[in-house]
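Continuing the batch. This is chain 6 of the set; chains 1 through 5 are on the previous pages. Same settings as before, nothing changed between runs. Recording input and output for traceability.
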Amino acid sequence: MDSHRDIAKEIARIYCSMTPHGVDMLASILVPMKFQKGDTILKEGNVCNALYFVEKGMVRQYYYKNNKDVTEHFSFEGRIVFCIESFLKQEPSRLIVEALEGSMLYAIPYNALHKLMETNQEIEMLYRKILEHVAISSQEHADSQRFENAAERYERLLREKPEIVLRAPMVHIASFLQMTPETLSRVRGASIGAAKANSPRELTDPWWTRTNTK
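Output for chain 6:
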């Protein structure tokens, strides 16, 4: 996927069906941006003036609290990332966005987006669907933190977003799940142990360990 129109079609496929004209309008304002692992995409104190669609790679949002790095959100291929309060108010962000991997993003600039929304209902609907998706995702994450224990939070992440477990550093995953790295290691070990205990025995196991199913 390398053309602006291909990216616009993919965004429409994920968030909101659009006509070819609507796709063309969206494609016309996309801005490709490439980042290396560790690059800062948005600095604390800067205004978030774009939505960013992740075409390749993984990024995270985080902030500092009591001199500790706290991860708030991960985004990877097919997801949009932005600091919602800063974007909506056009005020300085208290969050930081960084690339966890070499990443290719496509920015949807605030001013260009709002100009298109004045004349194109499809773009307005797309924007609304993106905001709805972000609001629901944020609420689900908040509810998970409130009502689920450490093991349940990890199992939910493993079930719903395994890419994060496979690709993000464990220290950031622990922060995202609001647990210490030691607790995450213990929970992860218990989860792996349970999965092994519940999995069928391999055919290479000694015959005396197998159950006769005939």
